[in-house]
Every structure is written in C-alpha cells, then in structure tokens.
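Subject: Predicted fold for LysR family transcriptional regulator, 295 residues

User T.R. writes:
Posting the sequence so we have a shared reference for the thread.
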Amino acid sequence: MNLHALRLFREIAVTGTVSGAAERLNISQPAVTIQLRKLEKELGFALTRPHGRGIVMTEAGSWLFAQADRLFLLEADIDAQCEAYRRGERGDLKLAATYLPANFMLPAWIGSFRHSSPEVKVAVASGNAQAVLTKLLHYEADIAWIGGQHSLPPSIISLPCYEDELWFVAPPDHRLAAGVHSLGELAKEPFILREPGSFTREALFSLYRTAGVTPPQPAVQLDGPQETIRAAVEGLGITIASRMEVQTYVDAGLLARLETNVPPVANPISRCVRAGDPLPPAAVAFLNALDGMHC
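User M.O. replies:
I've generated the structure tokens; pasting them so everyone works from the same file.
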C-alpha cells in the first residue's frame, strides 16, 4: 500500500475536503486528487463520494480512515519514543562495578539519574575487577567502575575519577589504637587479610615490599571486604580496608584508624569503557548527569 497516499487520504477525511487536505499539507489540490484516485484504484473500492461543496466517506472510506488513524498515531508514538531514546530518556543502561563503587557511589548516582530519566531501565552487575572487565568486553555492560590499580587491555579506555585510600583499622581498644606506628609493629599483631587476588591484599604486600619489611601473616583470611571489616569489629585483629568502606565504622566508634609512619595507600577508582565503541544514548545521558559527582 502507498503510505503517502494513505496519509493524504487521512487528511481528506479529517478536513472533509480535498482543498483542506491540500492546504494542511502545503501541496496542490490536483496532486491530492491524483493520489486519492491512485489509492482507490490500488484498493479496488471507492473511499469518498461528493457531498455539496465537500466530500463524505463511503463505508469503506470510514473503515480505512479508522485503520489509517491507528497507523499514524502509532507512527507518531514511535517517533516520540525514538526521540526520547536519542535523548537518553528511554532504553537500557547496563553498568558494572567492583564492590566499592557498586555500594558506595553508584546508588546515589542512579537515584539522581532516575529522577530525570525514570523510563530508563538500569541494571548493575558487581564483582571483582576481572569479572567486571569481562562484562564490559562482552557487551554485558556499557560502563564499568573499577577500584584499585590494574593492568588493562588496549581495548579498554580508563579514566581515573576518584581517589580513595586504604586505612589500617582495629577495634578502638586495640593496644595500637593510639600513637603512630611502624609497619613492622603492625605486622607483629594478629592480621585479618583478604583472599589472594584481592587488590587490598596485593596493595598491602606491595607496601611492605617497598618498605623492605616482612609483611604480616594472616591470623584470619576472609573473602570480601564487609566480612573482613566485620571480623575487625569483632576484635579478630588488624585489617586494611578502603576509607570509604570503614569511615562509618570509625565515626561510630566501632573501629579506630591506626596511624603509621608511611603515607596511606592510594585506592583509585576508574571509569572504563570500550575503546572505539560509542556509548548508547542512555549511557551518555547518565554520564552527563554525573558532571561534578566524582565521575
């Protein structure tokens, strides 16, 4: 079916005259008449009949007008939804992050973004750095945030966006809770360590290697940052953890920061995307909404 002719016919039905349709569409009256006749010939039945100075719909014309009206209303709705998609107000937003940004940064960002783009469906996957990078590389995430320092493949572009730091912490009644201590002093105490492969564990050992000091041996080894922090709260030993993760525990008096004679270990958080792969509109809108919010 000739949709251009169908659109002209719909305007004829709406205005009640060929001249009215021609005026609304800014084309000549003969051109409208020719398209109407071609449509009737294509369909095999008459759509209009003369009535006074105008025209009226035949039974077939009335039926076709209803169908055309549904069709072009749907077209208008699709156009509106496409425009909303182009602006990043519709669609899916797939994010991935390691534990720290997933729990302490993304919730606030997503909440702010949802106020302006409630129709966007947001999904967040969390895991270790390797799992997060795999999701990004396999197109299961549009943007990823990774804590710590990692060697990234050339297919990933990384942008540092926030500088956290690692603190030594212990219960407030720990004997080293006051004063400034050396790494060697801390290493002699019972220590709670993360699992092998954890950035926190590797950063701790790197700190000790750089200082030329024997690193602590684990009194307890746990998987996951919250498990490690809770073990410290229960008095199982000293641990090293992200400032962002332990700040509330320190403020509440459940943990104390142990001061050392070396600068704190940097714990950078980076935003990662695929190199050479344009972001979908919802992801672009999300990043625009983050302007001034640490990435």
